[in-house]
Amino acid sequence: MRMVLLGAPGSGKGTQCGKITGRYAVKHLSSGDILRRQRKLKTQLAQKAASYMDSGELVPDDIIVRIMAAAIRETSDGGFVLDGFPRTIDQAAELDRILEDADGGIEIVLNLKVDDDTVMRRLTGRRVCPECGAVYHVRTLQPKTAGRCDRDGAELVQRTDDKPEVVANRLQAYHRQTKPLVQYYRQKGILHEMDAGREIEEVTKAVFAVLDGFYAGRDDKAVCRCEQRGSQ
Ligand code: AMP
């Protein structure tokens, strides 16, 4: 399955990708996570991307396309869910070109819809573990010990780009540059939309309903982990 998860920052794309990879045999490719990993490794491309990321602007298309093209090529069985990429019409067109040369195009796109106030609340309250990447929230997902990661005890931090002024920029970039992708994929007839302002479990249920339906129409049902396990 070749899938794209669309939605504003804070719409829960990363969270739902975790649920999706637990149930279906696809690899999670998050452009934001890949960029953050590369920044830690101080790769040349990621160094160029750093200032854009910290101010909440989109990284130039040529940089992110090179990084994501490499990540897609590395997925050996071809099954993936893209999270945070594409984010502009030009990136989507590049993605189509990349996939034309490989097995085939994007088959399914899920758009997680959420309003700006919810995004602001979710992102400015988010805290992450710098060691393992675990995600918490100051109100809705508190660690057992205040300010410390449950897994490794590391001190939780706020991502630079989760500060209110940067979130405002990220939302602006989303509305200006990324939202047109909804129409791009609607025209291709592969878009499914859902209300992502609900509880995580409810959104997951809606996501699974769409994806189970997708797999039901295919011959290679074994790629669904739920079939392998015979559960749910
Ligand atoms: P995310 O964690 O997906 O919100 O991404 C964090 C930051 O990485 C964004 O605010 C952008 O600066 C950059 N970024 C991630 N994906 C892309 C993309 N597809 N195009 C341009 N910039 C991106």
Topology, element by element:
Blueprint: E1 2-7, H1 13-23, E2 27-30, H2 31-40, H3 44-55, H4 61-73, E3 80-83, H5 89-100, E4 108-113, H6 116-124, E5 126-128, E6 135-137, H7 164-178, H8 180-187, E7 191-195, H9 200-216, H10 225-229
Parallel strand pairs: 1-3, 1-4, 2-3, 4-7
Antiparallel strand pairs: 5-6
Helix pairs in contact: 1-9, 2-3, 4-5, 6-7
Residues 9, 31-32, 35, 52-53, 56-59, 64, 84-87, 91, 161, 170 line the site of adenosine monophosphate.
Number of strands: 7
Question: How many discrete structural domains?
Answer: 1
Stretches where pLDDT is under 50 for at least 5 consecutive residues are: 227-232
The overall pLDDT average reads 90
Which word captures the global form?
A: globular
